[in-house]
Each structure stands twice: as C-alpha cells, then as structure tokens.
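Consortium newsletter contribution from the modelling node. Members have asked for a concrete example of what our holo predictions look like. Here is one, prepared for the pyrazine-2-carboxylic acid complex that several groups have been discussing at recent meetings.
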Amino acid sequence: MSDALLIVDVQNDFCPGGALAVAEGDAVVPVLNEYIARAQAAGMPIFASRDWHPPVTRHFALYGGPWPVHCVQGTPGAAFHPDLRLPPGTPIATTGDTAEDAGYSMFEGTLDDGRPLADALRERGITRVHVGGLATDYCVRATVLDALHQGFEARVLTDAARGVNVTPGDDQRALDEMAADGARLETLREFPS
Ligand code: VGL
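And here is the predicted structure:
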C-alpha cells in the first residue's frame, strides 16, 4: 500500500470573507498543516488542487450556473489560504479552467505538466489517497468518488474538511455517500496508518 495526501481547494474564496465562503472553511488550515507535516515525515507525496475559473463560465450564476463568481484565475480569492503550508514544489492540479467545465473533481484536473492527476499517482505507485479540504459536499466528494471509481482506495479526512451546505446536512450526506461507495473516514488520530 502506497499513500498520497490530496488537499482540495483550500482557497480564500471558500473561506470566511470569500465569495463562496464555507462556514469554518479556514478551520481546516491548521489541521491540514498537521497532515502535511506528518505526510512529509512519512515520505508521503502531497498533491493539491485549485479551482481556477475564467471570468466567464457556465459555472457562475451570471451565466446560467449555480454559483456566485469565485476563484477567478489570478485573483486574490483564487489564491491558497495564506496560512496553508504546502511544501515548495507541491504538484498542483488545476480544475474548472474552461468556460464549460465545473471541475469539481481533482481527478478532472491537470497538473503543471498537462497530465491528469491519476497518471502521476499511478506512476508513483500510489494505491490509496487521503483527501481533505473544501468543500466536503462538492470537490472533496467528487474527488473521493472519482478516486474510488478509478481503482484507488480513499480516506476522507473528516477533521480537515467542511461543507458548503446549500441544504443543511449536505456535508453529512456527502460523507455517507462516500462511505457507502467504499471510502473510509479518517482523522489525525489514525494518520498515517
Ligand atoms: C466547490 C462549489 C463550487 C468546491 C467549487 O471546491 O468544493 N464548491 N465550486
């Protein structure tokens, strides 16, 4: 079993004060910093994703989509939370960067070298991913379900994820759905196992 840590969309617009703020979104930052430190100590590869939209996209309510304008390429809202301690050189998967693409899953993203995340994981022999970040009910959910469907084991870092909760309870329903699909739920107490 070879593991990787996946950190999903810990960007200013998903944190309090941001354009699509998740309640307590910033609370994941110190917890993820601890996951990052432990992953580094264990020699576990770390990957991060960023939601990276063009100014005009069908993802935004202005153009027929569900969401307020958020994470527009190059804006402060699209930057990672300033306290997130991603190690220098962490590969970043960019998602949602076309006018059509919602890009919820990190597995739909491309790394700097243009490759999909799954190729980079397989090349490194990764068989299990640990996924935390924002938001539980959208990008974390989609990333975990894709990981499972692509043949990886998946663990959701429940203490390092928060939900948008358009409808109250969406975060819990997403966790139930991920678990029903075969994901395990995990906290710092169990990491790394
Ligand atoms: C996300 C809602 C809209 C996410 C992205 O990163 O989970 N949620 N766009």
